[in-house]
């Protein structure tokens, strides 16, 4: 028994040393394929991380050193100074944009998740005429890019004088066809009909059943929808670009874009755009780390059943 | 069930159509308000501009004019999205009263009937004498009795150069393009480049054609003509093609880190650019402070005195504005009062289009970065040497894109600059036809 179980371990370590001298041995786990897999992963990791690293390094430099020093390594560390300058520029308009983004994305994603969850749940658990038609229309909605809807939305909002208001960006964010799709699949798989029956027998109304029983079971899916929607709203750029003209309403993406387009006139703005971009991705990173646990299980849950 | 659903859909669609139709009629009736009479009582205007710090300038106006209050709206620069927004807003009937429009985009708005002719507004025609002649040509399209915007700033071109490097290497400052090519060889011998040919700045190239006396577009009142390939344009294109072929100029994309770096490290020695470019060099190449100077643009024939223009914008009043009289009054103040022009120069380096603006005290001082040379005197002279004949076409964004594609290819060895102009001309004529704009061929 013991020689058999122990034998793979030395073999493996032998393979590892063998790999260094590039003589592949056993057919089971070819170091070549292992190395190539690792290489591919490493390349992609670098591909994704280098721009963020560059952004971080650039954000710590003073404007005079920005062009004259190695773009991927630090010069004098001016991060705090840069952030202070950015926040002070134009009476802190950058902070206002960050707050706007947080409001659009936070409140928008929360309500969108609620609506999508309720719709998906209803589509999964109630039988009513036109259910499939409705679901197919929602599925079609997944295919329509948000960009294509921006201009028609602008014309519609113009009719009711809502352009250039908070609502012009907020209301369209509340719709998430993908969320409806995901929550429907998830509710069908994870909310047993028997449990709903039981709740009804205990005298709970439909709304109460949804909020006290079903929501808990659907939680991973709801977190996933929230995260997706939050990122989508945070990164949404075209809709605010078309709708908004008042600087005080801008989300951070549009604000930074506007600054970046003025770099030819005011070259100092380049530094502010860089440090602003760095700060603007922090909320997304934090949110991902906090919700990672939930949304991972959420993505996997629907797939096996 | 299905029938009721269809009925509901039809009802919804009908309602939407009625709403849309209702609004478009109301939008077209407001067009007739362009007879330019003062309103009774207080007027509120909206003004969209992407100039950083313009709200401070407008605050000064609002303070002094309680009856004409202006609210500033903003966005990215024109081609970055604000022009597209203007067209959407004109379509939807909620365009602002006033908007910033660069000279090269004005014909597009004119063709789409987006601009109010301000000629009948009080004081507008009298203001002509106060603006540099060619800038007035840009906003009137050289039509009689027509003013479609008030000129704001301009970009007369001259040559920024590294005075210290030219002196240290005993190379004469070129005054003609022939001398420039000779100097380019001498500079190349030291390992550096005399300048960078910006592969995507068609505006800069247009400025060089403008200086050489070329014109790309024409309009006889009914038809447009397109001529990107006249002898002058081809002459300019061939000149730069030759320098590129002989590796005498670098070809980095403009406004990038590499581009800044080339100037900062002395790898590039000159830049033929506009007055507003002074700040680009100063902030992009901080290590070279004090070593730069400005000379007039090299000429095609010795003894000539011609200059080109790169950039510049105007303030236009959009159709649909109910108060063109007050809007014109504000636009005139914004672009010709010394108070406003000084502030605009300080906050955004705008170089005025108003003649009086060229003599602002702030534009008479020596500039430290340029060895205390009073560089704006050179630009003031250049401004008076810009031809008034140059006309922009109504589809400039498309023209820029098409020519720029060709330029980028030429720089990497596929095709030539002249071929890019030929392609650009064909594409522009097609684009005009596609929009039913009459073209003469």
From TrEMBL, chain B:
Identification of the protein by name: Extracellular solute-binding protein
The keyword Ubl conjugation is assigned to this record: no
Keywords for this protein: Signal
Signal peptide: 1-21
Keyword Signal among record annotations: yes
UniProt cross-references to InterPro entries, sorted A to Z: Bact_solute-bd_prot1
PANTHER family hit by this protein: ARABINOSE-BINDING PROTEIN-RELATED, POLYGALACTURONAN_RHAMNOGALACTURONAN-BINDING PROTEIN YTCQ
């Amino acid at each position: 028994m013991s020689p058999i179980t122990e034998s793979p371990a030395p073999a493996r370590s032998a393979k590892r040393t063998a790999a260094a001298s590039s003589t592949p041995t056993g057919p089971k786990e070819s170091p070549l394929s292992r190395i190539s897999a690792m290489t591919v992963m490493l390349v992609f990791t670098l591909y994704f991380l280098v721009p963020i690293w560059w952004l971080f390094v650039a954000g710590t430099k003073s404007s005079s050193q920005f062009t004259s020093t190695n773009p991927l390594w630090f010069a004098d560390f001016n991060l705090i100074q840069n952030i202070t300058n950015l926040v002070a520029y134009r009476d802190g308009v950058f902070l206002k944009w960050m707050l706007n983004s947080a409001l659009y994305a936070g409140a928008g994603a929360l309500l969108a998740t609620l609506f999508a969850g309720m719709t998906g749940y209803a589509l999964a658990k109630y039988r009513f005429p036109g259910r499939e038609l409705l679901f197919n229309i929602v599925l079609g909605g997944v295919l329509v890019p948000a960009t294509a809807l921006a201009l028609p939305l602008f014309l519609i909002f113009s009719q009711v004088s809502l352009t250039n208001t908070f609502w012009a960006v907020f209301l369209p964010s509340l719709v998430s066809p993908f969320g409806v799709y995901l929550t429907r699949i998830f509710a069908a798989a994870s909310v047993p009909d028997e449990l709903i029956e039981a709740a009804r027998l205990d005298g709970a109304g439909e709304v109460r059943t949804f909020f006290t029983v079903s929501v808990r079971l659907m939680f991973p899916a709801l977190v996933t929808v929230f995260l997706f929607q939050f990122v989508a709203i945070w990164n949404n750029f075209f809709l605010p670009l078309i709708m908004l003209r008042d600087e005080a309403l801008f989300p951070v993406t549009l604000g930074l874009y506007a600054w970046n387009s003025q770099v030819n006139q005011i070259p100092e703005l380049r530094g502010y755009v860089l440090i602003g971009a760095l700060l603007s991705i922090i909320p997304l990173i934090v949110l991902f780390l906090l919700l990672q646990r939930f949304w991972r299980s959420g993505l996997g849950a629907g797939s096996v059943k | 069930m299905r029938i009721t659903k269809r009925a509901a859909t039809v009802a919804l669609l009908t309602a939407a159509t009625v709403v849309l139709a209702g609004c478009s009629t109301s939008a077209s009736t407001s067009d007739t308000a362009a007879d330019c009479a003062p309103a009774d009582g207080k007027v509120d205007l909206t003004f969209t501009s992407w100039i950083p710090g313009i709200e401070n300038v407008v605050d000064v106006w609002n303070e002094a004019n309680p009856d004409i209050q202006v609210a500033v709206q903003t966005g990215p620069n024109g081609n970055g999205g604000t022009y597209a927004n203007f067209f959407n807003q004109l379509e939807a009937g909620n365009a602002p009263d006033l908007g910033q429009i660069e000279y090269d985009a004005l014909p597009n708005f004119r063709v789409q009937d987006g601009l109010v002719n301000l000629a009948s507004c009080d004081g507008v025609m009298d203001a002509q004498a106060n603006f540099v002649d060619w800038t007035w040509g840009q906003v009137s399209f050289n039509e009689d009795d027509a003013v479609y915007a008030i000129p704001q700033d301009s970009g007369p071109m001259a040559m920024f150069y590294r005075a210290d490097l030219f002196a240290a290497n005993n190379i004469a400052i070129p005054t003609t393009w022939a001398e420039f090519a000779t100097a380019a060889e001498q500079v190349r011998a030291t390992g550096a480049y005399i300048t960078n040919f910006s592969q995507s700045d068609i505006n800069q190239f247009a400025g060089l054609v403008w200086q050489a006396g070329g014109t790309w577009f024409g309009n006889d009142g009914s038809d447009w003509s397109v001529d990107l390939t006249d002898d002058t344009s081809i002459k300019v294109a061939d000149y730069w093609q030759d320098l590129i072929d002989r590796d005498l100029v670098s070809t980095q994309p403009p406004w990038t880190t590499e581009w800044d770096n080339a100037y900062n490290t002395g790898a590039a020695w000159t830049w033929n650019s506009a007055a507003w470019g002074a700040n680009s060099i100063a902030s992009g190449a901080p290590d070279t402070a004090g070593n730069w100077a400005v000379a007039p643009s090299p000429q095609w024939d010795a003894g000539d005195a011609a200059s080109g223009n790169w950039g510049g914008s105007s303030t236009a009043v959009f159709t649909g504005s109910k108060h063109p009289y007050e809007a014109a009054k504000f636009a005139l103040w914004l672009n010709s009062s010394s108070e406003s022009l000084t502030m605009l120069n300080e906050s955004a380096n705008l170089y005025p289009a108003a003649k009086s603006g060229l003599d602002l005290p702030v534009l008479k001082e020596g500039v430290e970065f340029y060895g205390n040379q009073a560089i704006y005197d050179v630009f003031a002279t250049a401004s008076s040497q810009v031809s008034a004949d140059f006309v922009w076409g109504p589809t400039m964004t498309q023209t820029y894109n098409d020519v720029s594609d060709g330029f980028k290819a030429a720089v990497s060895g596929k095709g030539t600059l002249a071929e890019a102009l030929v392609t650009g001309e064909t594409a522009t004529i097609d684009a005009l036809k596609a929009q039913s704009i009459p073209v003469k061929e």
